[in-house]
Amino acid sequence: MSRCSFYIRLLIGASLIAGCDQDIFENRCRQLFNSFYIVKWEDGKTFYLNNSCDLSNNNSNGGGMIEGTVKEIGSNSRYVFIKRMPLFSGEPEDWILIDKENHTLIGPFSSLDSNFRKKLEGVKLINANEAWNNLR
Question: Which of 74, 78, 80, 132 has its CA 20 to 30 A from that of 118?
């Protein structure tokens, strides 16, 4: 094989790898809790909750496990609180909880729900990007 042929094959191989939308180093996925992961979308500012780092497993509607994007996150000893923007435009932001004891999702809840507000008392909320950076 000539030297030129080798470099052409190397260039083609590198371009094929670069063209793939695969996150082989899992730079867009960080574990939040147990089998719950925060996945950063390609735009670098949109975040989803998913049950794996596999971006193709982002639910059939594209909104991950909460059918929307993650806006804020907080937690206490019992719950992880996730403020989400639902996928469907016109719907208001609401809340999804991860029950840490049962490893299940609960909700959505309105910010106006008094029972929900009691659970949220004393919880420090941070935006999704800050939470992402803290999960390193």
Answer: 132
How many whole angstroms separate alpha carbon 47 and alpha carbon 39? 6
Q: What is the CA radius of gyration of the chain?
A: 19
What's at 52, amino acid-wise?
Answer: S
Could you tell me which residues come within 8 angstroms of residue 39 by beta carbon, excluding any fewer than 6 positions away? 28, 29, 47, 48, 49, 50, 53, 55, 58, 64
pLDDT by residue for the chain (136 residues), tens only, comes to 566 666 666 666 555 454 444 444 447 889 988 889 999 988 989 999 998 887 666 555 678 889 999 999 999 999 999 999 998 878 899 999 999 999 999 999 999 999 999 999 999 999 999 999 998 7
Where do runs of H (alpha helix) occur along the chain? 3-19, 114-120, 128-134
Burial class for 60, CB neighbours closer than 10 Å (0-12, 13-18, 19+): exposed
Q: What is d(CA 132, CA 136) in angstroms, rounded to the nearest whole number? A: 7
Structure-token match 């639902």, residue found: 86
